[in-house]
Write a structure and sequence with these properties.
CATH architecture: Up-down Bundle
Order of helices and strands: HHHHHHHHHHHHHHHHHH
Number of strands: 0
Strand content: under 5%
Number of helices: 18
Helix content: over 70%
Shape: globular
Radius of gyration: 20 Å
CATH topology: Na+/H+ antiporter like fold
Structural class: mainly alpha
């Protein structure tokens, strides 16, 4: 069976790769296509691709894919534009993100009254982060204003790392409500560790690696065939060292990418182009497994309340806080709504949902089903609207 699964995975990846230019111009994006294929061929479909991986295996694949995507996207970001418009992502992260979580809690209390308030808060926090990989069509399209692309890229690169201490502070309280009295201390400590250590590790490893790569290229030590793995290995080192140290690997990967991009070395682009393909491949494999193993496993919990919550999570719960925090900024209403709409949910939320499933909370299955529904809708809706909304944004 393992060889059969490998055949399916790499046959699908091969076929997508040889048609990638044409497919990337279609409204149906790669994540959606791989989800559909995974579901049709997977455990609840034809059973050609029977995924019986542990939750830890799926989580690890998603984490590595996200780390590589965060690193490469950050390294390719235009830092001059980002520095000029730093107020936009700062507002979205420091005000918009907490507001989104609060709106998500209020919506959950109204639509999912069977869930305890702590579990509603976990659901709101795990669905708050946006996905850099799923929003790639937007953040890489030069027809989208650079300040909007930089804002969305920076937001998606950092918000998942910020949500890590929130989710992991709430999980033990959901299991033992008596710990509620320690919430402030736990959250503050985790937030400081996750962000502080993540930033330090990202800066330190990327700076050191930059010097080593610089020496390698000047002395012609590196062969051409190994260029494609250099940045991948660097991104995963940033992620794994930060995780070992108790920090956020996602923040370390993003900050490491920013530092690597800031170095402005002549070899930067050729290394990043190779790494980006590997990151995209891992991401699409994650979506294939997501469609095959996870979607069907939580469909039995599906209700209209879960569907309603998912729709609101992608619309009002996300768009209204963004619109409110961008008041006073020199952006048109169309641009503010564009930023609000393109908050796709993806790999980070998958990782959090798997962690919640592993925690075996009373409402774990409901939380996971809601997360899967929201992520699935996001893949569909953000995928099919990306190109048309970009064209609409260009029209004055």
């Amino acid at each position: 069976m393992s060889y059969q699964n490998l055949t399916v995975i790499f046959a699908v990846v091969f076929l997508y790769s040889v048609m990638s230019r044409r497919l990337e111009q279609k409204p149906v994006n790669g994540a959606l296509l791989f989800c559909i294929i995974g579901f049709l061929l997977g455990n609840d479909g034809l059973e050609w691709f029977q995924v019986k991986l542990t939750n830890e295996s799926i989580k690890t694949l998603a984490e590595l894919a996200l780390a590589i995507v965060l690193f490469t996207d950050a390294a390719k970001a235009n830092l001059k534009v980002l520095a000029t418009n730093i107020d936009l992502p700062r507002r979205l992260l420091l005000i918009g993100l907490p507001l989104t979580i609060l709106f998500g809690i209020g919506t959950g209390m109204a639509l999912l009254p069977e869930l305890p308030i702590i579990e509603v808060a976990i659901l709101a926090a795990l669905l708050a982060p946006t996905d850099a990989a799923l929003g790639k069509a937007v953040v890489t399209d030069p027809s989208v204003p650079a300040k909007i692309r930089g804002t969305l890229n920076a937001e998606s690169g950092l918000n998942d790392g910020i949500c890590v201490p929130i989710v992991f502070s709430l999980l033990p309280i959901a299991a033992d409500p008596s710990l509620i009295t320690h919430l402030n201390k736990m959250a503050a400590q985790l937030l400081a560790e996750q962000i502080g250590l993540g930033v330090l590790v990202g800066i330190g490893i990327a700076t050191l690696a930059g010097q080593i790569i610089d020496y390698s290229f000047q002395s012609k030590e590196q062969s051409k065939t190994w260029e494609q793995v250099t940045v991948v290995a660097l991104a995963i080192c940033c992620f794994s060292v930060a995780q070992l140290a108790g920090g956020s690997g996602f923040i370390a990967a993003f900050v490491g990418g920013i530092v690597f991009g800031w170095l402005e070395k002549p070899y930067k682009e050729q290394l990043l182009d190779s790494a980006e393909g590997i990151g995209d491949s891992l991401s699409l494999m994650t979506w294939l497994i997501f469609g095959a193993a996870i979607i069907g496993s939580v469909l039995h919990e599906f209700t209209w309340e879960i569907l309603a919550y998912s729709i609101l999570s992608l619309t009002l719960v996300r768009i209204l806080p963004v619109y409110l925090v961008l008041r006073g900024e020199p952006l048109s209403t169309k641009e503010k709504l564009f930023i609000g709409w393109f908050g796709p949910r993806g790999l980070a939320s998958i990782v959090f949902a798997i962690v919640v499933l592993d925690a075996n909370l009373p409402g774990s299955s409901v939380i996971a089903s809601t997360a899967v529904t929201t992520i699935g809708l996001s893949v569909i809706l953000h995928g099919i609207t990306a190109h048309s909304f970009i064209k609409a944004l260009k029209k004055k």
